[in-house]
Amino acid sequence: MLQDKVATAKKINSFLKNMIASGAFKLKYRITVNPPVVPGLDVTPPEILIEFAGPDSSLLLERGAEVLRSIEVLTHETLHLHQEDHDKVTFDCKGYRAARQQELHLAAQVAAERVIKTGLPYSFAPMSSRERRLIHLAFRDHGSLVTQSEGEGGRRYVVLYPKDYKPARPARR
User: Fold this and answer.
1) The pLDDT of residue 40 is above 70
2) DSSP alpha helices (H): ranges in the chain?
3) Assuming Cys at both sites, which of 3, 67, 88, 92 could form a disulfide with 47, CB separation 3.0 to 4.6 Å?
4) Average pLDDT for residues 57-69, to the nearest whole number?
5) Is 170 among the domain residues?
């Protein structure tokens, strides 16, 4: 848990004011300490939520919200947040995070049906560590499926396997 959420929110506000002014972004933001739980999502809400709006919002969401994620990472670094506290400070813009979480939830359901039906592993597209975590959590208590992250860096992805999957051996020559 973050020690002093109000002090952390003030530091975030100061950082974002400088970043937005320096970058000449046309953005506004709202910082909410202890935001309400979003019904229908089995995700622990952050302790601090920063939501962006304004004419440059679309810039934050281009290329899979790359700039939004970059601002989040820079803020985490500026605050010297430990890795385990990263999920406690979350950034969003135009409801992107909630929509992406629902999209991942649906993708996980479709993948589960496919793996159960075919008995073959399913590889998701590369995704951020936070998104991979959501997929892993979706299958944490599943009796017949397991997940594993594979790949390196920005190309890391999740593979969904039947619980007792044994890959076919390549033929010997």
Assistant:
1) no
2) 5-23, 57-79, 96-118, 129-138
3) 88
4) 92
5) no
pTM assigned to the model: 0.74
CATH number of the domain at 133, please.
3.30.1370.50
Give me the chain's average pLDDT, please. 88
Do 90 and 35 sit in the same domain of this protein?
A: yes
* Residue 173, in any domain of the structure: no
pLDDT by residue (tens digit) across 121-136?
Answer: 999 999 888 889 889 9
Q: What is the pLDDT of residue 45?
A: 77
Contacts of 20 (CB under 8 A, 6+ apart): 27, 29
How many CA atoms lie within 13 Å of 1's alpha carbon, on the beta-carbon side?
6
List the domain range (segments joined by +) for residue 105. 101-162
Contact 124, 135 (CB under 8 A): yes
User: Closest by alpha carbon to 146, among 166, 134, 162, 132?
Assistant: 162
